[in-house]
Design goal:
about 400 residues; Elongation Factor Tu (Ef-tu), domain 3; about 30% helix; alpha/beta; 7-stranded antiparallel β-sheet
Protein backbone atom coordinates (compact mmCIF):
# COMPACT_ATOMS: atom_id res chain seq x y z
CA UNK A 1 0.00 0.00 0.00
CA UNK A 2 1.49 3.29 -1.07
CA UNK A 3 1.84 6.17 1.35
CA UNK A 4 -0.57 8.21 -0.74
CA UNK A 5 -3.29 5.56 -0.56
CA UNK A 6 -2.75 5.13 3.17
CA UNK A 7 -3.03 8.86 3.65
CA UNK A 8 -6.44 8.72 1.95
CA UNK A 9 -7.76 5.66 3.75
CA UNK A 10 -6.89 6.67 7.30
CA UNK A 11 -9.07 9.82 7.32
CA UNK A 12 -11.91 7.86 5.70
CA UNK A 13 -11.64 5.16 8.34
CA UNK A 14 -11.64 7.76 11.10
CA UNK A 15 -14.71 9.41 9.58
CA UNK A 16 -16.50 6.05 9.39
CA UNK A 17 -15.58 5.26 12.98
CA UNK A 18 -16.77 8.67 14.11
CA UNK A 19 -20.05 8.22 12.26
CA UNK A 20 -20.55 4.80 13.88
CA UNK A 21 -19.86 6.18 17.35
CA UNK A 22 -22.23 9.11 16.71
CA UNK A 23 -24.97 6.73 15.55
CA UNK A 24 -24.58 4.53 18.62
CA UNK A 25 -24.74 7.53 20.93
CA UNK A 26 -27.82 8.83 19.08
CA UNK A 27 -29.40 5.37 19.28
CA UNK A 28 -28.78 5.32 23.03
CA UNK A 29 -30.40 8.74 23.38
CA UNK A 30 -33.37 7.74 21.21
CA UNK A 31 -33.91 4.57 23.23
CA UNK A 32 -33.87 6.52 26.49
CA UNK A 33 -36.51 8.81 25.01
CA UNK A 34 -38.78 6.16 23.53
CA UNK A 35 -38.47 2.78 25.20
CA UNK A 36 -40.57 2.04 28.31
CA UNK A 37 -38.39 0.18 30.78
CA UNK A 38 -39.52 -1.46 34.01
CA UNK A 39 -39.12 1.26 36.59
CA UNK A 40 -38.57 -0.96 39.61
CA UNK A 41 -36.73 0.29 42.65
CA UNK A 42 -33.80 2.10 41.01
CA UNK A 43 -32.02 2.48 44.37
CA UNK A 44 -29.96 5.58 45.10
CA UNK A 45 -28.45 4.63 48.49
CA UNK A 46 -28.40 1.98 51.21
CA UNK A 47 -29.87 2.40 54.68
CA UNK A 48 -27.20 2.91 57.32
CA UNK A 49 -29.19 1.83 60.37
CA UNK A 50 -32.76 0.97 61.34
CA UNK A 51 -34.22 1.03 64.86
CA UNK A 52 -37.57 1.38 66.57
CA UNK A 53 -38.50 5.02 67.15
CA UNK A 54 -38.33 5.56 70.93
CA UNK A 55 -41.07 8.20 70.72
CA UNK A 56 -43.49 6.04 68.70
CA UNK A 57 -43.12 2.26 68.60
CA UNK A 58 -45.26 2.05 65.42
CA UNK A 59 -42.51 3.91 63.55
CA UNK A 60 -38.85 3.27 62.79
CA UNK A 61 -35.85 5.57 62.93
CA UNK A 62 -33.57 5.44 59.93
CA UNK A 63 -30.11 6.83 59.35
CA UNK A 64 -29.77 7.80 55.69
CA UNK A 65 -26.57 8.79 53.85
CA UNK A 66 -26.35 12.31 52.49
CA UNK A 67 -25.30 12.39 48.83
CA UNK A 68 -21.99 13.88 47.79
CA UNK A 69 -20.99 15.81 44.68
CA UNK A 70 -22.47 18.76 42.85
CA UNK A 71 -25.24 16.86 41.06
CA UNK A 72 -27.68 15.16 43.41
CA UNK A 73 -30.22 12.83 41.77
CA UNK A 74 -33.85 13.59 42.61
CA UNK A 75 -34.37 10.42 44.61
CA UNK A 76 -31.12 10.63 46.59
CA UNK A 77 -32.07 13.83 48.45
CA UNK A 78 -32.63 12.17 51.81
CA UNK A 79 -32.82 15.55 53.60
CA UNK A 80 -35.56 16.97 51.35
CA UNK A 81 -37.96 19.03 53.42
CA UNK A 82 -41.63 18.20 53.02
CA UNK A 83 -43.80 15.10 52.73
CA UNK A 84 -41.98 12.20 51.09
CA UNK A 85 -41.99 8.44 51.08
CA UNK A 86 -39.27 5.81 50.99
CA UNK A 87 -38.96 2.73 48.77
CA UNK A 88 -36.65 -0.14 49.65
CA UNK A 89 -35.77 -3.65 48.55
CA UNK A 90 -37.79 -6.28 50.40
CA UNK A 91 -36.17 -9.56 49.32
CA UNK A 92 -36.71 -8.72 45.66
CA UNK A 93 -40.06 -6.99 46.19
CA UNK A 94 -40.49 -3.27 46.89
CA UNK A 95 -41.49 -2.07 50.33
CA UNK A 96 -42.66 1.45 50.96
CA UNK A 97 -43.43 3.80 53.81
CA UNK A 98 -43.86 7.47 54.69
CA UNK A 99 -40.97 9.53 55.98
CA UNK A 100 -41.20 11.96 58.85
CA UNK A 101 -39.19 15.18 59.11
CA UNK A 102 -35.43 15.27 59.60
CA UNK A 103 -34.74 14.63 63.30
CA UNK A 104 -30.95 14.96 63.30
CA UNK A 105 -28.08 15.41 60.88
CA UNK A 106 -24.32 15.51 60.69
CA UNK A 107 -21.93 16.03 57.79
CA UNK A 108 -22.69 12.64 56.26
CA UNK A 109 -26.09 11.46 57.49
CA UNK A 110 -29.63 12.44 58.43
CA UNK A 111 -32.02 10.70 60.80
CA UNK A 112 -35.71 10.48 59.91
CA UNK A 113 -38.65 8.48 61.18
CA UNK A 114 -40.52 6.06 58.92
CA UNK A 115 -44.06 4.72 59.06
CA UNK A 116 -43.93 1.44 57.08
CA UNK A 117 -46.95 0.89 54.83
CA UNK A 118 -46.25 -2.26 52.82
CA UNK A 119 -43.60 -4.93 52.74
CA UNK A 120 -41.39 -6.16 55.55
CA UNK A 121 -39.68 -3.40 57.56
CA UNK A 122 -36.42 -2.31 55.94
CA UNK A 123 -33.12 -3.70 57.21
CA UNK A 124 -29.76 -1.95 57.52
CA UNK A 125 -27.97 -2.12 54.19
CA UNK A 126 -31.21 -2.35 52.19
CA UNK A 127 -31.07 -0.51 48.84
CA UNK A 128 -33.54 2.39 48.88
CA UNK A 129 -34.57 5.70 47.38
CA UNK A 130 -36.74 8.69 48.13
CA UNK A 131 -40.32 8.52 46.85
CA UNK A 132 -42.31 11.61 45.83
CA UNK A 133 -45.52 9.67 45.19
CA UNK A 134 -45.93 8.94 48.95
CA UNK A 135 -49.19 6.96 48.42
CA UNK A 136 -48.81 3.78 46.38
CA UNK A 137 -51.89 1.61 46.87
CA UNK A 138 -55.36 2.77 45.83
CA UNK A 139 -58.06 5.28 46.83
CA UNK A 140 -59.68 2.96 49.40
CA UNK A 141 -56.60 1.72 51.23
CA UNK A 142 -54.80 5.06 51.21
CA UNK A 143 -57.69 7.50 51.69
CA UNK A 144 -60.79 5.47 52.59
CA UNK A 145 -62.41 6.49 49.29
CA UNK A 146 -64.48 3.69 47.69
CA UNK A 147 -63.87 3.22 43.98
CA UNK A 148 -64.38 0.86 41.06
CA UNK A 149 -61.52 -0.60 39.07
CA UNK A 150 -62.54 -0.15 35.43
CA UNK A 151 -61.14 -0.89 31.98
CA UNK A 152 -61.79 1.56 29.18
CA UNK A 153 -61.63 0.61 25.51
CA UNK A 154 -58.89 2.75 23.97
CA UNK A 155 -57.74 3.07 20.37
CA UNK A 156 -54.90 0.55 20.82
CA UNK A 157 -56.09 -1.51 23.80
CA UNK A 158 -57.66 -1.36 27.22
CA UNK A 159 -56.90 1.51 29.60
CA UNK A 160 -56.75 1.02 33.36
CA UNK A 161 -58.70 3.50 35.50
CA UNK A 162 -60.16 4.14 38.94
CA UNK A 163 -63.73 5.44 38.98
CA UNK A 164 -65.17 7.33 41.95
CA UNK A 165 -68.78 7.98 40.97
CA UNK A 166 -70.83 10.80 42.50
CA UNK A 167 -74.26 12.27 41.64
CA UNK A 168 -74.34 14.97 38.98
CA UNK A 169 -73.11 15.57 35.45
CA UNK A 170 -69.53 16.70 36.26
CA UNK A 171 -66.29 14.74 36.58
CA UNK A 172 -62.62 15.45 37.23
CA UNK A 173 -60.19 13.42 35.12
CA UNK A 174 -56.73 12.94 36.64
CA UNK A 175 -53.87 12.00 34.28
CA UNK A 176 -50.43 10.86 35.47
CA UNK A 177 -46.98 11.44 33.97
CA UNK A 178 -44.53 9.38 31.93
CA UNK A 179 -42.39 6.34 32.75
CA UNK A 180 -42.49 6.19 36.55
CA UNK A 181 -45.99 7.72 36.43
CA UNK A 182 -48.93 5.50 37.29
CA UNK A 183 -52.39 6.19 38.64
CA UNK A 184 -50.95 6.36 42.15
CA UNK A 185 -49.36 9.69 41.20
CA UNK A 186 -52.84 11.19 41.61
CA UNK A 187 -53.33 9.83 45.13
CA UNK A 188 -51.59 12.76 46.82
CA UNK A 189 -54.26 15.23 45.68
CA UNK A 190 -57.17 12.81 45.36
CA UNK A 191 -58.87 13.68 48.70
CA UNK A 192 -59.18 17.37 47.83
CA UNK A 193 -60.50 16.47 44.36
CA UNK A 194 -63.02 14.01 45.81
CA UNK A 195 -64.16 16.70 48.26
CA UNK A 196 -65.34 18.78 45.27
CA UNK A 197 -68.40 16.53 45.02
CA UNK A 198 -67.76 15.65 41.38
CA UNK A 199 -67.12 12.15 40.08
CA UNK A 200 -63.43 11.36 39.61
CA UNK A 201 -61.78 9.26 36.92
CA UNK A 202 -58.09 8.51 37.47
CA UNK A 203 -57.10 7.24 34.05
CA UNK A 204 -53.93 5.69 32.69
CA UNK A 205 -52.76 5.41 29.08
CA UNK A 206 -50.85 3.08 26.78
CA UNK A 207 -47.48 1.66 27.95
CA UNK A 208 -48.21 2.64 31.58
CA UNK A 209 -49.67 1.06 34.69
CA UNK A 210 -51.74 -2.01 33.75
CA UNK A 211 -52.98 -0.44 30.50
CA UNK A 212 -52.20 -2.25 27.26
CA UNK A 213 -49.05 -1.34 25.31
CA UNK A 214 -49.04 0.47 22.00
CA UNK A 215 -48.36 -1.53 18.82
CA UNK A 216 -44.78 -0.25 18.63
CA UNK A 217 -44.28 -0.27 22.40
CA UNK A 218 -42.81 3.24 22.34
CA UNK A 219 -43.57 6.57 23.98
CA UNK A 220 -45.07 9.17 21.62
CA UNK A 221 -45.18 12.03 24.16
CA UNK A 222 -48.85 12.72 23.69
CA UNK A 223 -48.99 12.45 19.90
CA UNK A 224 -50.78 9.10 20.26
CA UNK A 225 -51.48 8.98 23.99
CA UNK A 226 -53.82 12.00 23.78
CA UNK A 227 -56.27 9.72 21.96
CA UNK A 228 -56.38 7.53 25.09
CA UNK A 229 -57.56 10.55 27.06
CA UNK A 230 -60.22 11.18 24.41
CA UNK A 231 -61.32 7.55 24.84
CA UNK A 232 -61.68 8.20 28.58
CA UNK A 233 -63.84 11.23 27.79
CA UNK A 234 -66.04 9.13 25.52
CA UNK A 235 -66.39 6.59 28.35
CA UNK A 236 -67.54 9.41 30.64
CA UNK A 237 -69.95 10.79 28.04
CA UNK A 238 -71.60 7.36 27.81
CA UNK A 239 -72.24 7.72 31.57
CA UNK A 240 -73.97 11.08 31.14
CA UNK A 241 -71.00 13.20 32.20
CA UNK A 242 -71.45 16.56 30.45
CA UNK A 243 -68.70 18.66 32.08
CA UNK A 244 -65.06 17.85 32.93
CA UNK A 245 -62.02 19.35 34.62
CA UNK A 246 -58.60 17.89 33.71
CA UNK A 247 -56.02 17.55 36.51
CA UNK A 248 -52.65 16.50 35.10
CA UNK A 249 -49.04 15.73 35.97
CA UNK A 250 -45.93 16.07 33.77
CA UNK A 251 -46.62 14.34 30.42
CA UNK A 252 -50.28 14.14 31.42
CA UNK A 253 -50.34 17.89 30.75
CA UNK A 254 -49.24 17.28 27.18
CA UNK A 255 -52.07 14.76 26.78
CA UNK A 256 -54.55 17.34 28.07
CA UNK A 257 -53.55 20.17 25.73
CA UNK A 258 -53.14 17.91 22.71
CA UNK A 259 -56.52 16.28 23.42
CA UNK A 260 -58.09 19.72 23.72
CA UNK A 261 -56.79 20.46 20.22
CA UNK A 262 -58.72 17.38 18.96
CA UNK A 263 -61.73 17.77 21.26
CA UNK A 264 -64.79 16.06 19.69
CA UNK A 265 -68.04 18.02 19.43
CA UNK A 266 -69.91 15.37 21.46
CA UNK A 267 -67.31 15.17 24.27
CA UNK A 268 -68.10 16.61 27.72
CA UNK A 269 -67.56 20.36 27.93
CA UNK A 270 -64.09 21.27 29.15
CA UNK A 271 -64.32 23.57 32.17
CA UNK A 272 -60.69 23.99 33.24
CA UNK A 273 -57.22 22.39 33.24
CA UNK A 274 -54.53 22.04 35.89
CA UNK A 275 -50.92 21.36 34.92
CA UNK A 276 -48.31 20.20 37.45
CA UNK A 277 -44.74 20.37 36.08
CA UNK A 278 -46.04 20.02 32.51
CA UNK A 279 -43.92 18.49 29.75
CA UNK A 280 -43.81 21.72 27.76
CA UNK A 281 -41.36 20.57 25.08
CA UNK A 282 -39.86 17.03 25.00
CA UNK A 283 -37.00 18.28 22.83
CA UNK A 284 -35.73 20.65 25.49
CA UNK A 285 -36.20 18.06 28.22
CA UNK A 286 -34.05 15.62 26.26
CA UNK A 287 -31.41 18.27 25.62
CA UNK A 288 -31.20 19.02 29.31
CA UNK A 289 -30.86 15.32 30.09
CA UNK A 290 -28.06 14.96 27.55
CA UNK A 291 -26.20 17.92 29.03
CA UNK A 292 -26.48 16.48 32.53
CA UNK A 293 -25.29 13.06 31.38
CA UNK A 294 -22.09 14.51 29.91
CA UNK A 295 -22.85 13.38 26.35
CA UNK A 296 -22.10 15.72 23.43
CA UNK A 297 -24.85 18.30 22.89
CA UNK A 298 -25.28 17.14 19.29
CA UNK A 299 -26.39 13.74 20.60
CA UNK A 300 -29.77 15.19 21.58
CA UNK A 301 -30.63 16.44 18.11
CA UNK A 302 -29.35 13.27 16.46
CA UNK A 303 -31.34 11.20 18.96
CA UNK A 304 -34.48 13.23 18.27
CA UNK A 305 -34.13 12.68 14.52
CA UNK A 306 -33.74 8.96 15.08
CA UNK A 307 -36.69 8.90 17.49
CA UNK A 308 -38.85 10.81 15.01
CA UNK A 309 -37.96 8.37 12.25
CA UNK A 310 -38.85 5.38 14.44
CA UNK A 311 -42.19 6.74 15.67
CA UNK A 312 -43.32 9.09 12.93
CA UNK A 313 -43.73 11.79 15.59
CA UNK A 314 -43.00 15.42 14.79
CA UNK A 315 -41.56 16.43 18.16
CA UNK A 316 -41.72 20.11 17.24
CA UNK A 317 -45.52 19.83 17.05
CA UNK A 318 -45.54 18.71 20.71
CA UNK A 319 -44.22 22.04 21.97
CA UNK A 320 -47.08 23.18 24.21
CA UNK A 321 -46.02 26.81 23.91
CA UNK A 322 -47.69 26.94 20.51
CA UNK A 323 -50.98 25.94 22.16
CA UNK A 324 -50.82 28.33 25.12
CA UNK A 325 -52.23 31.35 23.20
CA UNK A 326 -55.24 29.27 22.09
CA UNK A 327 -56.43 28.43 25.61
CA UNK A 328 -59.95 29.57 26.41
CA UNK A 329 -60.55 27.91 29.80
CA UNK A 330 -59.05 28.68 33.24
CA UNK A 331 -55.65 27.13 33.90
CA UNK A 332 -53.92 26.36 37.21
CA UNK A 333 -50.18 25.84 36.76
CA UNK A 334 -47.70 24.46 39.31
CA UNK A 335 -43.94 24.44 38.79
CA UNK A 336 -40.77 24.34 40.90
CA UNK A 337 -37.63 26.32 40.21
CA UNK A 338 -35.40 23.33 41.06
CA UNK A 339 -37.08 20.93 38.60
CA UNK A 340 -34.26 18.84 37.17
CA UNK A 341 -36.41 17.22 34.49
CA UNK A 342 -38.39 20.07 32.94
CA UNK A 343 -36.50 23.38 33.01
CA UNK A 344 -38.65 25.94 34.81
CA UNK A 345 -37.75 28.51 32.14
CA UNK A 346 -39.82 26.44 29.70
CA UNK A 347 -42.81 26.60 32.03
CA UNK A 348 -42.30 30.34 32.51
CA UNK A 349 -42.29 30.81 28.73
CA UNK A 350 -45.46 28.75 28.37
CA UNK A 351 -47.14 30.77 31.15
CA UNK A 352 -46.24 34.06 29.49
CA UNK A 353 -48.15 33.00 26.35
CA UNK A 354 -51.45 32.12 28.08
CA UNK A 355 -54.17 34.73 27.33
CA UNK A 356 -54.69 37.29 30.12
CA UNK A 357 -57.16 36.44 32.85
CA UNK A 358 -57.02 32.66 32.48
CA UNK A 359 -53.85 31.70 34.36
CA UNK A 360 -53.15 31.06 38.03
CA UNK A 361 -49.41 30.27 38.29
CA UNK A 362 -47.89 28.91 41.52
CA UNK A 363 -44.12 28.86 41.00
CA UNK A 364 -42.36 27.41 44.05
CA UNK A 365 -38.67 27.89 44.74
CA UNK A 366 -38.12 24.46 46.32
CA UNK A 367 -38.84 21.01 44.96
CA UNK A 368 -37.79 18.86 42.03
CA UNK A 369 -39.98 17.36 39.32
CA UNK A 370 -43.68 17.07 40.28
CA UNK A 371 -42.88 17.99 43.89
CA UNK A 372 -45.04 21.10 44.33
CA UNK A 373 -47.38 19.10 46.58
CA UNK A 374 -44.52 17.52 48.54
CA UNK A 375 -42.92 20.82 49.52
CA UNK A 376 -46.19 22.69 50.20
CA UNK A 377 -49.09 20.25 50.61
CA UNK A 378 -51.40 22.69 52.40
CA UNK A 379 -50.87 25.50 49.91
CA UNK A 380 -51.12 23.10 46.97
CA UNK A 381 -54.36 21.53 48.16
CA UNK A 382 -55.91 24.91 49.03
CA UNK A 383 -55.11 26.28 45.57
CA UNK A 384 -56.26 23.12 43.79
CA UNK A 385 -59.46 22.79 45.80
CA UNK A 386 -60.44 26.42 45.26
CA UNK A 387 -59.65 26.23 41.55
CA UNK A 388 -61.61 23.02 40.93
CA UNK A 389 -64.60 24.25 42.95
CA UNK A 390 -64.64 27.46 40.94
CA UNK A 391 -64.44 25.58 37.67
CA UNK A 392 -67.28 23.24 38.60
CA UNK A 393 -69.43 26.24 39.46
CA UNK A 394 -69.15 27.57 35.92
Amino acid sequence: MTGTLLALLVPLALLALGALVAYRVADRVARSLLVPEPYGLQPEFTLRSVATDPDDTTRLRLVLPLPSGSHVPQFARVDAEGRYGLLWDDDGAIGHGRLGPVLARDAQHVTRSLAPVSGAPPRPGAPARLDVTVYRRDPLRDHDLPFDEVRIDGPVGELAAWWLERPGDAAVVMVHGRRRGERNEALRALPVIAASGASVLVSSYRNHDSSDPSPDGLFHYGAGEADDLLAALAWLRARDVARVVLVTYSMGGALALLARERWPADAPRLLAITLDAPLVDPREVLRQGVRRSGLPAAAADLGLRLASRRTGVDFGALDLRRLAPTLDVPLLLHATAQDGTIPVALVDDFAARVPPGLLSYRRLERGDHVEAWNVDPRGYEAALGTFVAGALAR
